[in-house]
Each structure stands twice: as structure tokens, then as C-alpha cells.
Specification:
By secondary structure, the protein is an alpha/beta fold. It has a 6-stranded parallel sheet, with helices on both faces. It has a 6-stranded parallel sheet with strand order 9-8-7-10-11-12, with helices on both faces. The termini are far apart.
């Protein structure tokens, strides 16, 4: 007779799960023992459960399929929460097995007791506890199906003793993903077409929902004569080889994307929940297409909201549109983009002095494989990735773009690398983020995951410093006393190098990228490099001025000189 834990692992294996990420513990022993006995199943030991959850999220983000992590009772499964929040907000399917204290001790304030179903409720689409053998494997099937269909996180809570009980039902099931087609009603499509036909200047804002709808969106843009602005999570799906692309908007974007939206009469939002209200046009008609009706109108008042898949809705809309012969808005937007792009490309050129992060990102882009997976850390690395990485048809861009958590890039990368050890995975790590969970380096070495980590070492929480400057505050509490990350990598068994001179950079990256195993290059980059958003309002401009005054009064005038020198290329 199989135990409940064994039926769980059997069913996961039957559904194509090849690995489970986690940290063992006594309450999880039944599960890890079942994994040990399951042929073709790998236990991916990490040094922290948060890392395990992120790794599962990275695996799911790359494949689109269910990934699994596990944590022991109390602190063990609580450590999963941040990574699970990230997976939930990124809408990738992850199953977490959260073990619990002995069943007869629940409610007694027992050692390590928590209330996991309550703790995980806010970051899940399903969270339930196994209370009896009769619930399994049915509850597991519901959890898996919910995670897959809703593209979110499911948590299955099991007490350690319950997992060791004999199973009542040993059936093996498979969960098959459905592929529904959702299209707005004919009357809604007619109304949307009439609005778009009546407006002269139309701009498209494309988000992650345009995945798989590239041809249909381009056909829609052609009919409307519409420039396409992409949100961060839409970059990898719509930017490349796109004659209508005018860049990105938002805090991480640049001027051409912002202007294309500001100057439109109608904005057509496709599969995006772009959160920054200040970047939406003030007087345009706004139409939003999303497969989830609850998303509609959440960020900005709408002229019309349509529930439907982007691919299906775009296909249905095109025949109803009058092809716009006046392409002035498109041409002006494209011209602005070309000028903006030239300015950004100029910033990639390295002169004498400290290495500029734009130049480093440019070299990473040039030297990486055509099918590389890039994972930028939250903070300035994600800004440089947005502006200076070219994500072609075979490349991927994955990160904590919605939850926005530091330290996410490397564990997400471990999950992506475990899927395919022959595919190049490149992490653009912040020094602050990497230092948060250095144990990830040990995980990469232990599992022989050939991940490539490039550290943007500016000895500071530099994005926070920019935020402080914009608020008129003197930079305080953001400096980092970093170790030699290259030497740290060598100490744990990785290929490790540290670079401070521009002339040494390219060769160091080439050696790391060619190395047959995990490799890290730590690069000393300019701390004072400014990453200015495309829209500077009066409050921010005043903030920079107040920052300068307060900095001088605080006796840190040298910092202003360094700031001006570092950014002279942008100011002249």
C-alpha cells in the first residue's frame, strides 16, 4: 500500500514533473523519501526555501508548465512566501507542498506551529489542507488543475504524519491543459471598430498578453497606422523585428514610447495591466482587451473594455477596420523612436574612466547566444536590460517585473537553467540583490547548473539612490561594503572574475560565457549613472534641485561633481 506522499509524487511524475525544489525537514520526510524512490524525479536541494520558490517560478516562466517546490513546517514553508508571491503576480503555474506540524497538535501552539492556509491565501489561486486520506489524490488534482488553468500558485498543506498514512485511493491522473477561445461579442467588436475608425491617431500599448499573438497585433497596427508601445513584460514578445515598435514607456522606459501615448486620440491596450497612471494619455479614448474581465479599467477610465484573447480579438477586429491612409502619427512616432534609440546607443560607448552599466549591458547583449535567457535583477539592472538588450525571436526575458523583489534574478535563473542545461542563462545581478542570498551560488555548484552571473557592482543600492535624489533627499544608508564577488565565486567552486578596467571587460565575459559550468563576473560600474524616466514632472525636477542643495549643505559637494561627470554624455 502506497503512502499519501507516494501517491503525490507518483502523480506529479505522471504529469511530467521532473524535479521538486526545496529544503528537507522532518515534517517533509515522507515527501522527500517518496522522491528518492521515484525514478526520473530529482530533489533540487536549495540553501533557502525562498530560493526554491523562485527557482520553481523561473522554471514555470520558461516552460509555461507546472513547476513544484516544497517546504517543511513553520519557518520552512513560510520562507516560500516571497517566491510564491512573485510566481502568483507573474501568473506562472507553481505548486507548493507545505508540510505542517503533527495533526493532533494543530491548534495547541506547538513547536513551529503556524496557520499555513491563512498565510498563503493572499498569494494563491488555491490553498487547502489535507485532513484525511480520503481527500487524496483528489485534492492534489484540484490544486494542479487550478494552478494550470488560472496560471497561478496552488499550495497543498499536509501534516507530516498525514503524508505517511496509507492511501485510500492510489489512482494516477493526468491534468490536460485546456485551450479555450474567447472573443468579444459581435456588437462589442463593432463598437470598438467604430471608435478606432473615428480616431485619427491611434497607439497600441502591448503587454505580456500579446504572447502568441504577434502576427495578429502587427496586422492590427498596420490597419490602424498605430505605433506599438510595449510594457516591460511585453518586450520579449513584440519588440523584435517590429516595424511599428516605438519602445517602452513607464518608469523604466524612454521618451519615444511616452510621446506616442501622449499624442494619441485613442489608446488600444492589448493584454496589459500597465500600473503607472501618470503615463496614460489624459484626453484620449481608451480601449482595453484582456482575457480577464477583472483587469478592465483598473488603471485608467475606459471608453470600452473587451474580454477576449488578444490573438482572437485582434483577428476579429481587423476586418472591421478602415485602413488608415494618413500615417503621420505613426511616422512621427517612428522618427522620434529612431532619434531616441540613437541616443541610447550612444550611451553604450565606453570612454576612459569607470565602466558604464550601459556599455556592460551592450557587451552582454552582443556576446550572448541567440537563444539566451536573460534575468535582470530588480533595480538598475532591469533598466539597462529594458533599454540595451535585444530580445529576438528565440531569446527570453524573465524577472520579478510585477512583484519587484530584490534577489529574484539568480534563483529564477537556476530554475530556468535546470530546464535545459545546454541553453545559455545569463543573470544581470545587482550587488545588493546577489548579496541577499549568496547561498544560490552553492546551489548552482552543487547541481552543476552552468548559469552565468554578471554582477553590476556599484557598491550601492543605486536605484534607491535615484529615488532619493528625485525626492530631494541626500543619499543615506545605501552604500554597500561588498566583498570581491569574483573571489567569493571561486571560493565556492565557480569560475569567478572581477573586472574594474574597461579594456579587461570583454575578454572576461567571453571566458565566463564559454566556461562549461557556473560562472560569475563581477564588474565595477559607475555608481552615479542616472536612469531618468521619460517623463520628469515638476515635483521630480524640484526634487533633484533640492537634493543638490541639501547635498552641498551636508558637506557632500564632491558627490555632485561625480554625478555631473558620470552623466555628462546624457546632459550634453
Amino acid at each position: 500500500m502506497a503512502t499519501i506522499a507516494e501517491t503525490v509524487v507518483h502523480n506529479l511524475a505522471a504529469n511530467g514533473i521532473q524535479r521538486i525544489w526545496g529544503v528537507p525537514g522532518d515534517s517533509l520526510n515522507a515527501v522527500t523519501e517518496a522522491i528518492r524512490q521515484e525514478k526520473g524525479m530529482e530533489w533540487m536541494l536549495t540553501r533557502h526555501e525562498e530560493e526554491a520558490a523562485f527557482a520553481a517560478a523561473g522554471e514555470a516562466a520558461l516552460t509555461g508548465e507546472l513547476a513544484v517546490c516544497a517546504g517543511s513546517c513553520g519557518p520552512g514553508n513560510m520562507h516560500l512566501i516571497n517566491g510564491l508571491y512573485d510566481a502568483h503576480r507573474s501568473r506562472v503555474p507553481v505548486l507548493a507542498i507545505a508540510s505542517h506540524i503533527p495533526t493532533d497538535e494543530i491548534g495547541s501552539q506547538y513547536f513551529q506551529e503556524t496557520r499555513p492556509t491563512e498565510l498563503f491565501r493572499d498569494c494563491t489561486v488555491f490553498c487547502e489542507m489535507v485532513l484525511s486520506p480520503e481527500q487524496m489524490p483528489r485534492l492534489l488534482e484540484i490544486a494542479m488543475r487550478t494552478a494550470i488553468e488560472k496560471r497561478g500558485v496552488a499550495v497543498l498543506v499536509m501534516a507530516g504524519d498525514a503524508a505517511l498514512e496509507d492511501a485510500v485511493d492510489e489512482r494516477v491522473f493526468t491534468v490536460r491543459r485546456t485551450d479555450p477561445v474567447t472573443v468579444p461579442s459581435p456588437s462589442e467588436l463593432q463598437e470598438a471598430a467604430a471608435t478606432l475608425n473615428s480616431c485619427g491617431n491611434v497607439t497600441i500599448l502591448a503587454g505580456a498578453g500579446v504572447e502568441g499573438a504577434r502576427d495578429e497585433v502587427l496586422a492590427l497596427a498596420d490597419a490602424l497606422g498605430a505605433p506599438i508601445v510595449h510594457a516591460l513584460r511585453g518586450k520579449e514578445f513584440i519588440e523584435y523585428d517590429n516595424a511599428f515598435d516605438v519602445g517602452m514607456t513607464g518608469l523604466l522606459g524612454f521618451a519615444s514610447g511616452y510621446r506616442a501615448m501622449e499624442d494619441c486620440d485613442a489608446l488600444l491596450m492589448l493584454g496589459t495591466d500597465f500600473p503607472y497612471q501618470q503615463f496614460y494619455p489624459k484626453h484620449a479614448k481608451i480601449l482595453q482587451v484582456d482575457i480577464r474581465g477583472e483587469q478592465l479599467g483598473r488603471r485608467v477610465p475606459l471608453t470600452q473594455g473587451l474580454v477576449g484573447g488578444v490573438r482572437e480579438t485582434a483577428s476579429a477586429l481587423v476586418p472591421l477596420l478602415e485602413r488608415k491612409s494618413n500615417r503621420t502619427h505613426l511616422e512621427k512616432s517612428l522618427d522620434h523612436y529612431r532619434r531616441t534609440r540613437r541616443q541610447l546607443d550612444d550611451l553604450e560607448k565606453q570612454g576612459p574612466g569607470t565602466i558604464h552599466p550601459q556599455h556592460l549591458t551592450h557587451l552582454i547583449d552582443e556576446l550572448a547566444e541567440d537563444d539566451a535567457v536573460f534575468l535582470p535583477d530588480v533595480g538598475t539592472p532591469v533598466i539597462w536590460a529594458c533599454r540595451h538588450l535585444h530580445i529576438g525571436a528565440r531569446r527570453r526575458l524573465i524577472g520579478s517585473f510585477w512583484h519587484g523583489t530584490m534577489a529574484a534574478a539568480t534563483p529564477l535563473g537556476l530554475g530556468a537553467q535546470a530546464v535545459d542545461r545546454n541553453r545559455q542563462v545569463v543573470v544581470l545581478a545587482g550587488d545588493g540583490g546577489l548579496a541577499m542570498m549568496l547561498g544560490e551560488l552553492l546551489t548552482a555548484v552543487q547541481h552543476k547548473l552552468p548559469i552565468k552571473i554578471v554582477v553590476f557592482d556599484n557598491a550601492a543600492l543605486s536605484f534607491v539612490e535615484v529615488e532619493m535624489k528625485a525626492a530631494g533627499l541626500v543619499n543615506f544608508g545605501t552604500g554597500l561594503e561588498n566583498p570581491d564577488f569574483g573571489a567569493v565565486a571561486q571560493a565556492v567552486g565557480m569560475h569567478g572574475e572581477s573586472v574594474s578596467r574597461p579594456e579587461d571587460l570583454e575578454d572576461a565575459l567571453r571566458r565566463a560565457f564559454a566556461y562549461d559550468g557556473p560562472a560569475l563576473v563581477s564588474v565595477a560600474v559607475e555608481r552615479q549613472e542616472l536612469s531618468i524616466p521619460p517623463k520628469i514632472d515638476a515635483k521630480q525636477a524640484t526634487g533633484f534641485a533640492v537634493y543638490a542643495l541639501r547635498t552641498v549643505l551636508a558637506g557632500n559637494g564632491r558627490e555632485l561633481i561625480d554625478l555631473a561627470k558620470a552623466n555628462a554624455r546624457q546632459l550634453l
